[in-house]
Write a structure and sequence with these properties.
49% of the residues lie in helices and 23% in strands. By secondary structure, it is of the alpha/beta class.
């Protein structure tokens, strides 16, 4: 079993396509196919299901993938150590994030990361908590920012941010009692798998609202536009309205502390390899979080 075969196999698995893997590895498709088939023959197991849309892992392929990723990571580190090369983080880094986290918390972190580590090609992939968790477990992402709590034992999680959630409505909705009085509420949310959506439905049900109609949108701007127009209510972090400009006029409804506090965690696969690029990115995220917490503490002390 050769390291080149493992690298090629891991790239195909991540991109779910032999064509895209060949482009990423700067080689031809026939070379990628030959290496994967040689690996399959050596192991005596089929690793990929091939279909018109690309490829997916077989059960054997899914079992091999974490070993391929860890092995390649160790080999890369060993090469840098022995050769005496610059140990600064470099190469691709794929990180998943909630769309709200991308809008509120990550712009400054990503900007500074780009200045400090110009050799890293950072890509942010947005999705729901469920989608991002699946992609991390499938090793398509090195890690992701998701809504806590994280209950899957195959994932390692670290609390990074805390958000105060508010219900967002059109300006004419004076309070939540007005919503409850109607007996039926329309909500405008991200697709199934969004943790904020689950929490919003739970809160509305606790207020006696039994009939909830759902409209799904794929973008934050679309959700805000519908809420502003009175087509439904949604729930979003309050910080979104402090740090992100929005052209939509909405009303924010405060929630009890027990309902409003939601933690954002960074997750990664328990058996995954932590690359130097990911380690540097997490260190920077922790630094920004600590600075924000100190600033908030000073504001509270000043107010007291």
């Amino acid at each position: 079993m050769e390291s080149a075969q493992l690298r090629i196999f891991a790239t195909v698995a991540r991109l779910e396509s032999i064509t895209r893997a060949a482009e990423a590895l700067h080689t031809v498709q026939s070379n990628v196919t030959a290496h994967v088939r040689a690996l399959e023959q050596e192991l005596g197991a089929r690793l990929l299901h091939r279909h018109r849309r690309g490829v997916t892992l077989t059960r054997a392929g899914a079992q091999l993938l974490p070993f391929a990723i860890k092995t390649q990571g160790i080999l890369d580190e060993a090469t840098r150590a022995v050769s005496g090369r610059d140990r600064r983080p470099s190469g691709p880094l794929l990180v998943g994030t909630l769309e709200t986290t991308a809008a509120i918390r990550l712009p400054e972190i990503v900007a500074k990361f780009g200045v400090l580590y110009p050799q890293v090609d950072l890509s942010l992939i947005t999705g729901t908590t469920c989608e991002l968790s699946r992609d991390v477990l499938a090793y398509r992402l090195e890690g992701a920012f998701v809504a806590a709590p994280v209950l899957n034992p195959e994932l390692v999680d670290e609390k990074v941010f805390e958000e105060e959630m508010v219900i967002v409505s059109a300006p004419r909705v004076s309070d939540l009692k007005q919503l409850a009085a109607s007996g039926e509420v329309k909500i405008v949310v991200f697709r199934e798998g969004c943790s904020y959506r689950v929490l919003l439905e739970k809160i509305l049900q606790s207020k006696g609202i039994r009939k909830i109609r759902v409209t799904e949108f794929g973008t934050l701007d679309g959700i805000l536009g519908c809420a502003a127009a009175g087509l439904g209510v949604t729930m979003l972090p309050r910080a979104l309205f402090r740090t992100a400009s929005t052209r939509h006029k909405v009303r924010l409804h405060k929630l009890p502390t027990s309902d409003s506090r939601v933690e954002t965690a960074f997750i990664r696969a328990r058996d995954g390899f932590v690359s130097p690029a990911l380690s540097a990115f997490l260190d920077l995220a922790r630094q920004f979080t600590n600075e924000a917490q100190r600033a908030a503490s000073m504001r509270r002390s000043g107010a007291g």
